Amino acid sequence: MKVIDILKKDTLSMSFEVFPPKTDSAFESVRAATEEIAQLQPAFMSVTYGAGGGTSAYTLDIARNIKERHGVETLAHLTCVSSTRETVRQRIAELKAAGIENVMALRGDLTPEMEGQDRSGWAYRYAVDLIAELREHGFCLGGACYPEVHPESADQKTDIRHLKEKVEAGCQFLTTQMFFDNNLLYNFLYKIREAGITVPVVAGIMPITNAVQVERAIKLSGSHMPQRFKSLVDKFGSDPAAMKQAGIAYATDQIIDLFANNVTNVHVYSMNKPDVARQIQQNLSDILGK
Ligand code: FAD
Fold first, then answer.
1. Residue of the nearest CA to atom 42 in ligand 1?
2. Which structural domains are found in the chain, ordered by start?
3. Range with lowest mean pLDDT among 171-185, 221-235, 243-257
4. Residue of the nearest CA to atom 10 in ligand 1?
5. pLDDT > 90: percent of the chain
6. What distance in Å separates the CA atoms of residue 80 and residue 121, rounded to the nearest whole number?
7. Among 14, 112, 218, 242, which is most exposed with the fewest C-beta within 10 angstroms?
8. Does the CA dihedral 260-258-11-249 come out positive or negative?
9. Residue 219 — pLDDT band, cuts 50, 70, 90?
10. Residue 171 CB: number of other CB atoms within 10 A?
11. How far apart are alpha carbons 75 and 141 in whole angstroms?
């Protein structure tokens, strides 16, 4: 099933993200965690690629396993930064062979070495280059968007202009970077709709369940931490059980507010944590009808 058909339904949807193992030895434990999350029967599950996770083979193995064993639709991430045309074509063939219908087409982060290089000759400089190629192969394509502006962008207007190019190239839906203040998303949605971007936008929510994660999340995403969230970390950060409970409650509260404000599709960055995914789903059971 195509993810776009799930997102266009008239009902609320919640999906979960998992990441592949970095090593062979971690494969079984990651597979077990992703299967536990799949048992919750989310709207779909996405499996990340590369940075922070394992190789393309692991992404495919995990995605195929979730789909075949649990009947949950999967979205496989693919990045293209510094890839050759041959590598990307090989990945496309592997995705097809694994029966993957949905791909999140990304550029990937530039490493410090890449930043200093002349990138003009690269086959794929931006996600839009990958989207154009994947489109030919009939995948349902998603892309990333940034309510608080991508860190490399000069300003939001420029970032939205490039986002529109991705949609025009064939990106059928967008998933946002994590954010902790829903007003930033509402503002962003208003601006992109005004710019003529009409595809579904899936709101990305990261449940912060320990104090260490806070710093990592801010460093990675550059997201603004509202005072309400900072107070919560200050108060409960040194007590792991309390922090986890407070972080799940905060994410739940964000999701309820999004649903109440007609944002119908939410993607939870569940980070291979079945207990966190389960708790959030339970908190929303009547809202989601599950
Ligand atoms: P792009 O859309 O190419 O944008 C990158 C920058 O280039 C932006 O500033 C944009 O405004 C600018 N730009 C775009 N087109 C042009 C142009 N024609 N000319 C000049 N500037 C341009 N990373 C991973 O490694 N693996 C993952 O699985 C993964 N999953 C992610 C999922 C989501 C939902 C999100 C939000 C991010 C994810 N990332 C992942 C991180 C992502 O790879 C980085 O944020 C990366 O820096 C940008 O990727 P992009 O696809 O948004 O790039």
1. 108
2. 3-288 (3.20.20.220)
3. 221-235
4. 159
5. 86
6. 14
7. 112
8. negative
9. confident
10. 28
11. 9
